[in-house]
Amino acid sequence: MVKKKIKWRDMLMLQAVFLVYSVSSIVSKLASAEELFSIEFILLYGLDVLVLGVYALLWQQVIKKFELSVAYANKAVTLLWALVWGIFLFHEKITFWKGAGILIVMAGIFILNSQEEGE
């Protein structure tokens, strides 16, 4: 397989796709607060399916530009988005261990992407 040179524009697009994916967790959390099978519940889960559908279409386009192993490893950035959404939208607390875990994952993504650019 021929290695493709990763462009910053493509990397930003990949991260934007994961941002869209992370919105699904927001909608799911909102739906979980509603009564089962209420109109709000059904509408929120319908929105969740729509968001996941958009994500799937974008994912198919973006993986054309990356090796699958690199693209999928970058999916871990959704942990960072989940932390951000939890803090700002749901007023969750960040603990030392959550912060340390996110930093380790981000360091791994950075190292993986740096190695791919260097090869």
How many individual domains? 1
Class per helix and strand makeup: mainly alpha
In total, the number of strands is 0
Q: How many helices in DSSP terms?
A: 5
Estimated helix fraction: over 70%
Instruction: Say what oligomer this is.
Output: single chain
* Span between termini: 14 Å
State mean pLDDT (0 to 100 scale): 90
**What percentage of amino acids are in beta strands?**
under 5%
Low-confidence stretches: none
What form results from the Cα inertia axes?
flat
Largest sheet: none
Rg measurement, Å: 17 Å
Q: Secondary-structure element order, as H and E?
A: HHHHH
Short description:
With 119 residues, the protein is mainly alpha-helical. The protein has 5 helices and no strands.
Question: What characteristics describe this protein?
Answer:
mainly alpha, 75% helix
Summarize the structure in words.
This protein has 119 residues and is an all-alpha fold. It has one domain (8-118). Helices cover 75% and strands 0% of the residues. The chain is built from five helices and no strands. The mean pLDDT is 90.
